[in-house]
């Protein structure tokens, strides 16, 4: 590295001269790039320098591999008389691409790529995608190990359709809370009317009661008509029931019709309450048919031996109402008395 004393080239002199060649001991550092099995991934390089002088090494970028550690001599240090080796160790990397597609393999979200050491575990999960439902995983498993070759996890989603079911009256006023059905597009759906007190189902509007889910939202509307009731009573003048009441039901504002019944021993006299004919209303109505109890008086015409002289006649009238009878003239007979009714009237 240098010459000391007399110059390396010159002239002889009377006095003795000394040319001294001074040398610096050299050290070598070999830099290796290997995988975890010590297999070389790149050509080694050798650095040379004076003992005790510094050296500097760096890892290289190696496609498909990730630097994990340095073995042997340190990455930076000083040359030594003995040879040194710096070993950069790399782990082989695997990639897992995660795709999100519909049943036609159309991408629904941007794919993501996971990278990790071969044989190390990976984990993937489905994403929430509006309007779609996750149905299956295809390709590589959702969770597994990275491999030397690239892998692809494909999350498959089915497009979802919604059917809203409404329950309204004829004025489109909601009678019950709507419900929403969700299902895969082209899959069947089924709806049914509800029992709603005071209302009668009359028709379906909008989407059909049963059909298939579609990409666009659908609405099934069940329409109900408000129902009114008319109770028909049959009573005597003391409001005592003479026959079992009947109840008529019909749509509000629709007509109703009632009639009196024939009740043995009673005569219809009037209607009270709601009219005999009218329209159903939201509130309950009562039609009351009032009857008067009837009494009968049979009038007989007989001789002294109780032999009939003429056909009896029967009088009918309301209980406690007056009745009147009269004697008849019979040829060859003379009226003598009235019998029955707890009294006897003799003509003198």
Automatic annotation (TrEMBL):
Family annotation (InterPro entries): MucBP_dom
Domain MucBP: 6-24, 28-91, 95-158, 162-225, 229-292, 296-341
A Pfam family this chain is assigned to: MucBP
UniProt keywords, alphabetically: Repeat
The protein's name in its UniProt record: MucBP domain-containing protein
Taxonomic path: Bacteria, Bacillati, Bacillota, Bacilli, Lactobacillales
């Amino acid at each position: 590295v240098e010459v000391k004393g007399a110059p390396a080239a010159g002239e002889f002199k009377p006095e003795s001269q000394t040319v001294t060649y001074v040398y610096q001991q050299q050290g070598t550092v070999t830099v290796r790039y290997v995988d975890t099995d010590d297999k070389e991934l790149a050509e080694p390089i050798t650095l040379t320098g004076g003992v005790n002088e510094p050296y500097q090494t760096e890892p290289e970028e190696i496609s498909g591999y990730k630097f994990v550690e340095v073995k042997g001599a340190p990455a930076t240090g000083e040359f030594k008389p003995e040879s040194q080796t710096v070993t950069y160790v790399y782990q082989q990397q695997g990639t897992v691409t995660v795709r999100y597609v519909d049943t036609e393999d159309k991408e629904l979200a941007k794919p993501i790529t996971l990278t990790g050491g071969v044989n190390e575990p990976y984990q993937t999960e489905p994403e929430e995608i509006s309007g779609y439902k996750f149905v299956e995983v295809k390709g590589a498993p959702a969770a597994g190990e990275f491999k030397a070759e690239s892998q692809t996890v494909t999350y498959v989603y089915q497009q979802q359709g919604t059917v809203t079911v409404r329950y309204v009256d004829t004025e489109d006023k909601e009678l019950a809370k709507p419900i929403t059905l969700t299902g895969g597009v082209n899959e069947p759906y089924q709806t049914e009317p509800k029992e709603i007190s005071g209302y009668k189902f009359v028709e379906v509007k909008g989407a059909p009661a049963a059909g298939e889910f579609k990409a666009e939202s659908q609405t099934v509307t069940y329409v109900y008509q408000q129902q009114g009731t008319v109770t028909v009573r049959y009573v005597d003048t003391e409001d005592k029931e003479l026959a079992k009441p009947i109840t008529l039901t019909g749509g509000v504002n629709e007509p109703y019709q009632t009639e009196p019944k024939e009740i043995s021993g009673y005569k219809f006299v009037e209607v009270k309450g709601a009219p005999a004919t009218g329209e159903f209303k939201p509130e309950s109505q009562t039609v009351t048919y009032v009857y008067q109890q009837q009494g009968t008086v049979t009038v007989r015409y007989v001789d002294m031996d109780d032999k009939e002289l003429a056909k009896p006649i029967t009088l009918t009238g309301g209980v406690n109402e007056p009745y009147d009878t009269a004697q008849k003239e019979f040829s060859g007979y003379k009226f003598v008395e009235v019998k029955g009714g707890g009294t006897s009237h003799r003509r003198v």
